[in-house]
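Researcher: Quick one. two chains, 712 residues in total.
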Amino acid sequence: MTAYTHSLNGTRYRFDDLKTLLACATPLRSGDQLAGIAAESDEQRVAAKMALADLPLKTFLGEAVIPYEQDEVTRLIADSHDAAAFAPVSHLTVGGFRDWLLSYAANTEALAALAPGLTPEMVAAVSKLMRNQDLIAVAAKCRVVTAFRSTVGLEGRLAARLQPNHPTDDPEGIAAALLDGLLYGMGDAVIGINPASDSVPDGIRLLDLLDGVRQRFDIPAQSCVLAHVTATLQMIERGAPVDLVFQSIAGTEAANRGFGVDLALLREAHDAGRSLKRGSVGDNVMYFETGQGSALSADAHHGVDQQTLEVRAYAVARAFRPLLVNTVVGFIGPEYLYDAKQIIRAGLEDHCCGKLLGLPMGVDVCYTNHAEADQDDMDSLMTLLGNAGVNFLIAVPGADDVMLNYQSLSYHDVLGLRHLLGLKPAPEFEAWLGRMGLLDAAGRLPPPADGSSAVKRLTAMGLA
Amino acid sequence: MTTPADDPWSRWRAATRARIGLGRSGDALPTSAQLEFQAAHSRARDAVHGAADFAALAAALAPWDCIAVHSRAPDRATFLRRPDLGRRLVPESLPVLEAARSDWDIAFVVADGLSARAVEAHAVPLLRACRARLGGLRLAPVVLAAQARVALGDEIGAALGAACIAVLVGERPGLTAADSLGVYLTWAPQPGRRDSERNCISNIHGDGLGHDAAADILCWLLREASRRKLSGIGLKVDPAAIAGTLTG
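Model:
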């Protein structure tokens, strides 16, 4: 184990190993303080950044933050590394890598070609040297396009997950939030329910409801009931209309075990989802959610900082060619991300790091009522992410998720962001909105007039 | 002008508390919807950051004795950042509890948790309803715990010598309910108990579970935990058996 040192203003700082160096270099975060691994002073943090900037990128190929023998995520990262793709940057230090990422040479094509050559730890390390502006600029150069019934991630597009949750999975209550969201042009990333019940029959009932609405109105979108992957496998066995297979994942084997999954189970689920061949324009069938702090909350963090562990979760995701990956950035609470400053920074980090690893990143721009944040802060993060080229955002009625008891973005917010930045929905979904008569001549979605046919058709729907 | 009769959302609004059919000012929320959201958020934040009036709770519970204790989190800001400190007693609280040590069948703890408003609104009526149902059992003084998380009850129960502990705790406020109370029951409390060794009753508030209904479930669980000497995943609520205790 190599120790790292750096002298700054007459003080010599020592960092015992690579994970300590990364933890001390990471921007201030309540979760790292809770774990007892954060830098003890601002100056120590900068000294760690300086030491990290001088570190050759290759170091990460020789030294693991969690031992290879102990952790299957480390083994996945090491065994799937593409040395040829890494070659263009293999001579750089972490600091030099930041300069290269910001250079004009690092264009969309170069970044896409590089992705298989990067490990999560390299990406986490360089992000710790980047300001928010850097995270936005670099992410905006990445393009990751995936498809199922709609195509997500194309330039000039912003998709949305329509999240019509209900505290008791009431079909009418879910349909109400779903119809409302369709009238704002939401749902082109996925129409996805967090079920209150974890039972398989209840999940099938919800899938039938969503698939029924999709077929009745011929909506080019995919649906998902965000149940545990083992429940979704049973739903597939029973012939339910499963479009996407969902799972929460984390960056260590032990934290994934806390979620009740391992790589073999995810492989089985990926194969089962693909076997259904329900996609019309693509075959990306996996949907993953992540979030900084999940490994610490499962007591499975190995002394590694929460941002580095988050990026390791993306290495798990990329093994399964997902349609969608999103960080649920502010959901976990103030003991991990204390306030809006930390939530906004983490959202930008997660998005940029995921994109650099080649993932179709979205963000649930959100907070809980015990965090120091409000809707103004969500406006800021959403607008930053729109400029960073985020693939999709989560939207709920009036920003209030009545099932999970947290605040995300309102349908209004995502629609307003599209109009502000001139972004369109996924192309197949945009065409459907046009067929429904919801778009004006400029391609915008104005408030529907009283008695408009789309409102009448959708709200007059009966449930079978 | 849309009249209620031809509002296409009237049928759907009845099906959910979700904020649907809000209308639009351009792309944004109309002023009234925006202010209603802010009112709900302010209520939730005030519940998180308020201080529970434990003196008033103790007065309301008299003649039932109360003991006031404090976690190692000195204030709200620390409490929110450091859940570990909210699970440990400040050293001065330990002798106070040990002075009341006895072979109690059950000890109740009122913990402010994440909603002072929840314990102020629901702790006293719930405790009274429980006391009325627990004749013949030895009830410890009620412990009023400031800046407290659920697991603080483990240390409290061990210090009191209680066979079983029920922690009434303010739940994280949502926009629809800022005063929701939860109860966590733990058999043989001692530091290090896992969450899987507890039984939970949540959503006790005006629009949720009522005080008498919650007391029925809690007291059934208490008696079953005492009889079977366990709590947690091995002890499942049996609605039929609870209904039986009401009619029988």
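The interface with chain A takes residues 2, 8-9, 11-13, 15-24, 26-29, 33, 37-38, 40-41, 44-45, 47-48, 80-84, 114, 172-176, 178 of chain B (CB under 8 Å).
Researcher: Thanks, that's what I needed.
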